[in-house]
Model the fold of this input.
Amino acid sequence: MRRISIFGATGSIGENTIDLVRRQGGPEAFRTVALTGGRNVTRLAELARELDADIAVTAYPECLGALREALAGSRTEAAAGPEALAEAADRPVDWTMSAIVGAAGLVPGLRSLRHGGTLALANKESLVCAGALMMAEAVRHGARILPVDSEHSAIFQALQGEDRARAERVIITASGGPFRDWTAAQLAAATPEQAAAHPNWVMGQRISIDSASLFNKALEMIEAREFFGFAPEQIEVLVHPQSIVHALVGFADGGLMAHLGPADMRHAIGYALSWPDRAALPVERLDLARIGQLEFRAPDEMRFPAVRLAREVMARGGLAGAAFNAAKEAALDAFLAAEIRFPDMAGCVEAVLGQLDAAGNLTSATIDLDKVQAVDHLARLKTAEAARKTGKN
Ligand code: NAD
Ligand code: MG
Done:
């Protein structure tokens, strides 16, 4: 029986993964080793009971008592805290879903590569923070990383059977989010609720807001660089309001291979779950005649500076990705706490990257986990400071 673990099981990607596991036979077809979640321990325990998991881990030690209670009478062990998450990742499985949100997903993802199975990677932040480390760890232990982000799954699929060296560019599409056509003045007054209302995809709150600011696309540009090894100038972004074409790969002969699909993450998750096979998936079949039109346009980097910042981060290299991701996470926290306005997020991130670069904090010939975590910590502190100053003005 295939052994699986799901990190971030209670989130949007986690629930979609479990939906597929359930449809493909649930506990009869899969042996679930670890399921993890956050504060929603009632849901975590329900899922653990349903899949008969060996262990359920909440990220928060203060939630351990409630998790134990919710699991009473089941055979599932309960644990809590970051170290317990990492230890759960040490338990050997054949397939792991990495779907914790944010840099908190890095250590469990890295540790799960050590047992040499397949890591289905939704947590793009771990590639942005420490792509070289993730890829090297996979090679060292004979593990395989499969992309789950829809754009990267699309690129991966377009490259099947092709010579990677013949791919000269990739185009990642962005819906443009709910603020695609908003003016700068409207953006300045945007609320977290408005930012989280994605027009096409149903996702967790943080990635939804990152989609509205195009920070999600910025992370995905860096993810494409780290995962596939494309040079920064080979990575393009197009706004595509319909979210039907997820990415395109351009080859040396001028041909473009596009991947089209409905805005349903179960396609990319299911592809990673069955790869190299293609299982039948319960996603909508596209009716292109009904959709009628597919539009594409260049992103407006004045209103949405994140795409430009991603290029600067890629050009900078070293620890810039880790600092960028941490600054972005801290700026989002400040926006959610109503300390800063929506457009201030990009301003704070840019200021902090500049400060850290000038102080020499981003330079490093080699990247290891300690350096990544140190710069992550520093970037969060500096961003919180920058946000406080911005908020007062
Ligand atoms: P979500 O907020 O719905 O779920 C996040 C999960 O992580 C939950 O289980 C939560 O309990 C857990 N979690 C939160 N903070 C944690 C912490 N500090 N430590 C440990 N666990 C923690 O998020 P999501 O939308 O499912 O996204 C998960 C990941 O997948 C993100 O990296 C996101 O960028 C990526 N992703 C999501 C989508 C999507 O459609 N939702 C698409 C592409 C990529
Ligand atoms: Mg994506």
Remarks:
- The CA atoms of residues 93 and 314 lie 33 Å apart.
